[in-house]
């Protein structure tokens, strides 16, 4: 009897930057109430999933040495949860090719987990809907639902209640990777500490920022970017102030710490300007490496799969 060996599935998932990240109070469950506007970027990780005897994870690319290949990896949790739901063994090899910085505030681990959910859904022909996958995604982490969603969206609750945001035009970003990472819980804790000491001020609502996105106006958007976690990230990594200053000197419209940091994102007027800012920043020696990216970009998507089923 002929048996058909399923082909591997390849999925790409995007990094995110928070254009607006308003952190509310600490909830009894240990999370903070958020209002955040996410934008997915053209900076993506690629995840390939092969049928195998047992679950294994391989990682290569950006920061691969710092990524666990066991149950400490969110991808492991994603595969075992989905297998359990489907009543099967997680018998797959998952190869992650990283471009998104590790512990960088760009939701790289969340992107890999979202890619795994989508890839296994395709490989195993589970036909779970986007809504079902989003519910599973939230069990894995606050940013995993947005990695599935992509584009530009406003998130409330833990950041997982998503509504699409109209965004015209393509925005041009320079992404500055820092030396070393920051732990997200540490940055939230530092914000609570700073607030306990009476500082820093909270950013306002996202209305004007959403209008600038609808208008596709990068200059207007630049003046409205805001991140409540930035003060905490700068408090833990003061050298980021130099990086942010250097980006403005180099000609960026604005610079912000991405999410909980330490990656910094610089909004530029054009793609040429982004290339110039990136070159200047490389010369200034204020970060580990640089990428140019555009947003919005699509959410996690299968780019190659078994076409027989
Ligand atoms: O959901 P996730 O596992 O990505 O969150 C990591 C940590 O970030 C949480 O344990 C919590 O300390 C912090 N966090 C928070 N409020 C949120 C999201 C994350 O305090 N809305």
SSE diagram, text form:
Blueprint: E1 9-26, E2 32-51, E3 56-61, H1 74-86, E4 92-98, H2 108-123, H3 130-140, H4 144-149, E5 152-157, E6 161-164, E7 171-177, H5 184-196, H6 207-215, H7 218-222, E8 226-227, H8 230-236, H9 240-249, E9 254-257, E10 264-268, H10 271-284, E11 289-295, E12 301-304
Parallel strand pairs: 1-8, 3-4
Antiparallel strand pairs: 1-2, 1-12, 2-4, 2-5, 5-6, 7-10, 7-11, 9-10
The chain binds cytidine-5'-monophosphate (C5P).
Structural class: alpha+beta
By DSSP (H or I, 4+ residues per run), the number of helices equals 10
Bound molecules: cytidine-5'-monophosphate
- What's the story with the biggest beta sheet? 8 strands, mixed
**Average of the residue pLDDT scores:** 95
Number of domains: 2
Number of strands: 12
Percent of residues in β-strands: 25-35%
What is the top-level CATH class of the largest domain? Answer: Alpha Beta
Distance between the termini: 18 Å
- Spans of at least 5 consecutive residues with low confidence: none
CATH topology of the largest domain: Ribosomal Protein S5, domain 2
Radius of gyration using CA atoms only: 19 Å
Shape: globular
User: Helix coverage percent of residues?
Assistant: 25-40%
Architecture of the largest domain, CATH level 2? 2-Layer Sandwich
State the order of secondary-structure elements, H for helix, E for strand.
EEEHEHHHEEEHHHEHHEEHEE
Keywords: ATP-binding, Isoprene biosynthesis, Kinase, Nucleotide-binding, Transferase
Pfam families: GHMP_kinases_C, GHMP_kinases_N
Pathway: Isoprenoid biosynthesis; isopentenyl diphosphate biosynthesis via DXP pathway; isopentenyl diphosphate from 1-deoxy-D-xylulose 5-phosphate: step 3/6
GO molecular function, one term: ATP binding
